[in-house]
Amino acid sequence: QVRLVESGGGLVQPGESLRLSCQASGFTFGLTRMNWYRQTPGKEREFVAQIDRFGADTDYAESVKGRFTISRDNANKLVYLQMNSLKPEDSAVYYCHGRGAWGQGTQVTVSS
User: Rounded to whole angstroms, how far apart are CA atoms 112 and 14?
Assistant: First the structure.
């Protein structure tokens, strides 16, 4: 059974950082491209970042380029999203996605 569990969300002030984690299980993680998405109320879920199975190739939404970094630890089946210089518009529920499955999401709130 494919399972993705996010953690690391919280309330921070503008300019601060957070690191999200996603623990994967139930599939061959090292062969799977992994993604982060986010969603705010009333809006569609939007792509944030993607990483290939080796961790060598990454892609980002324009809105987060230069501030967010996606990485992975294949040995422990983890994918991370390091978020720096956070802005209020980054506030959303962040979801891990891979192998057609979604996690339950973790809330990130950026507010002064």
Answer: 6
Closest CA to 6 of 32, 28, 29, 36: 36
Residue 92 is given by DSSP the state E
Beta strands 46-51 and 78-83, pairing class:
unpaired
Q: How far is CA 85 from CA 14, 26, 70, 80, 100, in A?
A: 7, 34, 15, 16, 30
- At 64, the amino acid letter reads V
pLDDT digits (tens, 9 = 90+) for 8-33: 999 999 999 999 999 999 999 999 99
Confidence of residue 111 (pLDDT cuts 50, 70, 90): very high
Q: What pLDDT, in 10s, does the model give residues 71-82?
A: 999 999 999 999
Q: What are phi and psi of 99, to 5 degrees?
A: 55, 35
